[in-house]
Amino acid sequence: MLGFLLRGGCSPLVCLWALLLPLVSLHRLNQHGRRGHAGMNRPKLLLLSFDGFRWDYVDRVPTPNFRSIMNEGVTVEQVENAYITKTFPNHYSLVTGLYAETHGIVANEMYDPVLNRSFSMETDSIYDSRWWEEAVPLWVTIQKAGGRSGAAMWPGSDVRIHGMYPTQFLQYNASISFETRVERIIEWFSAPNEEAVDFGVLYWEEPDESGHNLGPQSPLMDEVIAGIDEKLGFLINELKKAGLYEKVNLIVTSDHGMTQLFTDNIIELDEYVSRDLYTWVDKSPVVGILPKEGKLEEVYNKLVDANPNMVVYKKEEIPKHFHYQHNNRIMPIIIEAKEGWTVMQNRTGPFMLGNHGYDNTLRSMQPVFVARGPAFRQNYVKTSMRSVDLYPLMCHILSIRPMPNNGSLLNVKDLLYPELVPTTPSTPPRVNQYSYAPVVGSFISVVMVLGFLVFYIRQVTLKQLPSLKHRSREMSQPLLQEDLHL
Ligand SMILES: *[C@@H]1O[C@H](CO)[C@@H](O)[C@H](O)[C@H]1NC(C)=O
Ligand SMILES: *[C@@H]1O[C@H](CO)[C@@H](O)[C@H](O)[C@H]1NC(C)=O
Ligand SMILES: *[C@@H]1O[C@H](CO)[C@@H](O)[C@H](O)[C@H]1NC(C)=O
Ligand SMILES: *[C@@H]1O[C@H](CO)[C@@H](O)[C@H](O)[C@H]1NC(C)=O
Ligand SMILES: [Zn+2]
């Protein structure tokens, strides 16, 4: 091209266009480079869940660390999570993008009639891979694509799923402090290039535990929430100390919210139906009832109009919008308590002051969602999303092809930093790992335009001199080299 230019074979305007063309394509290349596919440039993502952190807790007490993420990143005001709004189903939805009926972890306590097995989050039954293998969690997918992952206590992350554990993980142990979990995550992200993890998941049991014990309305919850904000501050600080804060995309969310219960609001099933007629599978507020052989109609008829504070569904009547029907592990009858109500067999036994699991469209059941990092927009508030949309978003950030899922990248793409850097001169260039590329591009554009002008003026003024072609070549050569080196 340059040879063609130097032979004087083009008009000034065409020459200018021809000179700028490679710069435009270079600029495009840099934009894509932000999300490089290979080795050390693979984008990083850390997903953190504070169990039971309701969406509005951030407004209840000063939460400066949440605020800083909101200011530097994105907030989603309303996240519709997966039904039932319990811990295991929702944590698996976050890393699979699937509703519970499809990923198969339909409750914290389950019975599978085909396996003839029971699952309880309280026992080692969770280590039976078969419960988890109706879906493929993101850490398995990223590892199959040549990436690495690290997991600190995320539900299911210490279970062998489709033949794999996360590249790095901790065996579940509730006694391991948040700080220790963070230290391990930081180690894994900071490892030498080929060993560093690309995707991390981090789980903390609070404020769920306190929410159950105290009830979310308790003034004592204020201190618990402030404590969670301090934990987030610890993580931010450790990321900064390790030089990871500007590189790692950080998503802070939760599985569900929490609502206040009242001791007067108890439904006692023993008043309506004999225990001999059914097996009690999952606990309040969405109770799984497995009627004894041939007793389905009898149990259903006894329960359906028994108490106005609960709704009783046969499996095939469960409302479609819950996406909670098509799985063997969903029991033939489910009872859903109204918000604030507890279903028990009788009044003896432990009673909690706070609970979750209710209808996922209730505001009280919904989690917090904030995120920041090179992939995310800044100081941006989005009205609503579904928690299943997070999975395709994370796959996009990590440049991983998503497995079939129930989310939609289109629904949440506006959370991402726009593909094209805004050209408004008043906004300073975004400072991150990749931001030098457009600056260098613009600098070279200016140099080349100036170079062209000099070249053009010379061409016009020295038109008659025989040495023109040679001189122009001398002048243009270094520019061409710089172009190639970028
Ligand atoms: C299911 O397992 C239990 C023991 O856990 C056993 O007593 C029962 O017979 C099994 N049922 C079937 C249908 O295999
Ligand atoms: C859990 O962690 C605690 C504290 O580090 C330790 O004392 C305990 O042995 C661990 N339990 C298991 C089962 O590893
Ligand atoms: C309530 O149920 C428990 C077993 O769960 C039983 O031991 C107790 O006797 C029952 N109480 C009443 C008042 O029926
Ligand atoms: C959710 O996604 C899975 C996998 O693509 C699909 O089989 C299932 O039908 C979807 N569920 C809904 C409600 O669309
Ligand atoms: Zn809980």
From TrEMBL:
InterPro entries: Alkaline_phosphatase_core_sf, Phosphodiest/P_Trfase. Residues 1-26 form the signal peptide. The chain crosses the membrane at residues 436-457. Gene3D superfamilies: 3.30.1360.180, Alkaline Phosphatase, subunit A (3.40.720.10). Keywords: Membrane, Signal, Transmembrane, Transmembrane helix. It comes from the Eukaryota. PANTHER family: ECTONUCLEOTIDE PYROPHOSPHATASE/PHOSPHODIESTERASE, ECTONUCLEOTIDE PYROPHOSPHATASE_PHOSPHODIESTERASE FAMILY MEMBER 5. This is Ectonucleotide pyrophosphatase/phosphodiesterase 5. It comes from Lates calcarifer.
